[in-house]
């Protein structure tokens, strides 16, 4: 492709043998220079790649010799074949070089704070402080380019399906997605605040009431949460909503989006339709609501096998209405005692009382610290139920809470897969892509501390049809018309059908302990909207940063965000957050108190 901008004729990385003898004008950064006594070799880098420039002629040689790394230069010259034996097959331009006839410095550079190269070990704060240099590193640049391409593909598929890209406000009112809000003081209404949107949820629902029928947005969202590798205070969602739809319509749309992304950008064909798993089956088989199905290690319920056990730990769990679950690690008998202990510590670190491990041995035995508490019949029953063969290890979890036992073993399952190398290291591109829909999750969660029900996702989700009448009588049983899209054990996004009946919405608020006056105060605009002819509608929000992170084979979303913040929330580039002028505070009617320590 011709480079954009009249100051150049070609992109450095685009030159090939077909360009031999052409006169070209290039512009870019000096990636490196080598003075071979009489000849200076430069690597010239621009967004399209790198080409070798040779400065032999007098005058040009001196100009080239004076260049330093990251100077911006203009090079005029002729494309020629590299001499035999110097072809570089590792470089797309490796068959050619540019014989310079003129070199001009357009802009000098200080010595960069770290080398512009892929394999560097540099403090992340330093990289972010000089992000403009960091993004010149080919690996970083390729992630940002991939992100732009991904957004382009998404827009194309959404538009082809009749979706309209519509903006929603950034200065708005709190939208409950379960995180803390960022607040912005309103100068024109002292004592009042806008909230930055945790998602465009309520606006997109109102767009459905407005008859827009199909909406999408590449939407920035803000959640004041503690930072993790895959979270940022501000992040980007592919946000969408559609009217007159059922769950399967939304699934089919997103399947087209993902199959197209993977096919066009990664050259990988994803077989459709994607598998679906109910939440309860996901918990039962994998101990997770976002199971990684690239490997087996499935959970097995063992309640019947140990129903009459004398082993106190199991008996207590079962007696309290809980469960005993196990999983088999084929060949796991080769784990050392220290490794078993580490796994027990891992379980304890997650708040479990413990984790039982056993090794299947010849003669139908199970070697384990708890063997003495089990009868021979139980040992035989456990081996049988788990399908354990000699040399396998098995792990068992017991808990009065069924979900807790499943989640513990689900976490052990993921840890075992990591330790046994069943999945590629984080930060490398996987060879297998297991997409999966997880459907019909619980609608509410009991908050024991607060002594109340919380919406498992957000309060606008419609209950599953069989719970429409009864969800407020038996909230613990009610499932929702919600679904998650999961990829290799990572949740990419959540969607649902929404409540479009104001009376039902009021019932949900009431169950959540939101009094009618409070509902009025916080959500009257939604309730009002729902009262003016709301079509049935549903939609989804997907984390674009995470999607691109997985596509690019990175382990942190910071690697696919042009200007991310550190884990601490700080931005080393701009030094935000920062103090402000006293006058600004006065204008806002705000007095800052010293932070509590
Ligand atoms: N608003 C939801 C979220 O941000 C997504 C959705 O339900 O569409 O998680």
Taking pLDDT < 50 over at least 5 consecutive residues as the criterion, the unreliable ranges are none
User: Order of strands across the widest beta sheet?
Assistant: 6-9-10-22-21-20-17-11
Distance between the termini: 57 Å
Q: What's the mean pLDDT score?
A: 95
Q: How much strand?
A: 15-25%
Radius of gyration: 30 Å
Instruction: Provide the CATH architecture of the largest domain.
Output: 2-Layer Sandwich
What's the CATH first level of the largest domain? Alpha Beta
Q: Could you give the count of β-strands?
A: 22
The helix tally amounts to 15
CATH structural fold name of the largest domain: BirA Bifunctional Protein, domain 2
Question: Shape from CA axes?
Answer: globular
Q: State the domain count.
A: 3
Bound molecules: aspartic acid
Give the full name of the CATH homologous superfamily of the largest domain.
Bira Bifunctional Protein, Domain 2
| Alpha-beta classification | alpha+beta
Largest sheet: 8 strands, mixed
Topology:
Blueprint: E1 23-35, E2 40-46, E3 49-55, H1 60-65, E4 72-81, E5 96-107, H2 124-129, H3 131-134, H4 138-160, E6 164-165, E7 183-185, E8 193-195, H5 201-209, E9 214-222, E10 234-243, H6 247-266, E11 276-278, H7 279-286, E12 300-301, H8 312-319, E13 323-329, H9 337-349, E14 356-361, E15 365-367, H10 376-386, E16 393-399, H11 402-419, E17 435-439, E18 444-447, E19 452-455, E20 482-487, E21 490-497, H12 502-511, H13 516-530, E22 537-543, H14 544-552, H15 582-588
Parallel strand pairs: 3-5, 6-9, 11-17
Antiparallel strand pairs: 1-2, 1-4, 2-3, 4-5, 7-8, 9-10, 10-22, 12-13, 13-16, 14-15, 14-16, 17-20, 18-19, 20-21, 21-22
């Amino acid at each position: 492709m011709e480079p954009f901008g009249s100051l150049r004729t070609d992109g450095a990385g685009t030159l090939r043998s077909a360009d031999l003898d052409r006169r070209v004008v290039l512009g870019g950064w000096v990636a490196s220079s080598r003075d071979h006594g009489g000849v200076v070799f430069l690597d010239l880098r621009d967004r399209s790649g790198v080409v070798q420039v040779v400065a032999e002629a007098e005058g040009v040689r001196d100009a080239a010799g004076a260049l330093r790394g990251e100077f911006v230069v203009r090079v005029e010259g002729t494309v020629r074949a590299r001499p035999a034996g110097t072809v570089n097959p590792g470089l797309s331009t490796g068959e050619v070089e540019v014989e310079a006839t003129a070199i001009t410095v357009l802009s000098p550079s200080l010595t960069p704070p770290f080398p512009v190269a892929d394999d560097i070990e540099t403090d992340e704060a330093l990289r972010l402080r000089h992000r403009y240099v960091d993004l010149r590193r080919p690996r970083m640049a390729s992630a940002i380019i991939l992100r732009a391409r991904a957004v382009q593909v998404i827009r194309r598929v959404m538009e082809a399906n009749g979706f309209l890209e519509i903006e929603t406000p950034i200065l708005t009112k709190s939208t409950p997605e379960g995180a803390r809000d960022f607040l912005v003081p309103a100068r024109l209404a002292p004592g009042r605040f806008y909230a930055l949107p945790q998602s465009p949820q309520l606006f997109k629902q109102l767009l459905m009431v407005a008859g827009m029928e199909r909406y999408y947005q590449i939407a920035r969202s803000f959640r004041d949460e503690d930072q993790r590798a895959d979270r940022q205070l501000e992040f980007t969602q592919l946000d969408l909503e559609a009217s007159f739809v059922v769950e399967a319509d939304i699934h089919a749309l997103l399947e087209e989006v993902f199959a197209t992304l993977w096919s066009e950008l990664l050259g990988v064909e994803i077989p459709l339709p994607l598998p679906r798993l109910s939440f309860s089956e996901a918990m039962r088989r994998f101990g997770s609501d976002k199971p990684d199905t690239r490997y087996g290690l499935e959970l097995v319920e063992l309640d019947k096998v140990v129903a009459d056990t004398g082993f106190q730990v199991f008996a207590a769990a079962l007696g309290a209405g809980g469960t005993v679950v196990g999983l088999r690690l084929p060949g796991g008998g080769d784990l050392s005692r220290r490794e078993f202990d580490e796994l027990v510590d891992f379980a304890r670190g997650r708040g479990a009382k413990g984790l039982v491990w056993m090794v299947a041995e010849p003669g139908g035995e199970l070697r384990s610290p708890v063997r003495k508490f089990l009868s021979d019949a139980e040992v035989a029953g456990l081996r049988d139920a788990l399908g354990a063969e000699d040399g396998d290890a098995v792990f068992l979890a017991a808990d009065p809470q069924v979900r807790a036992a499943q989640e513990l073993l689900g976490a052990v399952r993921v840890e075992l897969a990591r330790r046994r190398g069943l999945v590629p290291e984080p930060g490398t591109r996987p060879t297998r892509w297991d997409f999966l829909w997880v459907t019909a999750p619980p609608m509410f969660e009991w908050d024991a501390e607060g002594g109340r029900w919380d919406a498992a996702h957000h309060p606008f989700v419609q209950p599953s049809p069989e719970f429409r009448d009864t969800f407020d009588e038996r909230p613990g049983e009610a499932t929702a018309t919600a679904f998650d899209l999961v990829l290799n054990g990572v949740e990419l996004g959540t969607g649902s059908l929404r409540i479009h009946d104001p009376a039902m919405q009021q019932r949900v608020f009431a169950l959540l302990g939101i009094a009618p006056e409070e509902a009025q105060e916080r959500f009257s605009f939604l309730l009002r909207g729902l009262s003016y002819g709301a079509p049935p509608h549903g939609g989804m929000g997907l984390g674009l940063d995470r999607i691109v992170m997985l596509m690019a084979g990175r382990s942190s979303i910071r690697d696919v965000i042009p200007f991310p913040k550190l884990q601490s929330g700080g931005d080393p580039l701009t030094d935000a957050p920062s103090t402000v002028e006293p006058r600004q505070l006065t204008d806002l009617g705000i007095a800052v108190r010293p932070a509590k320590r």
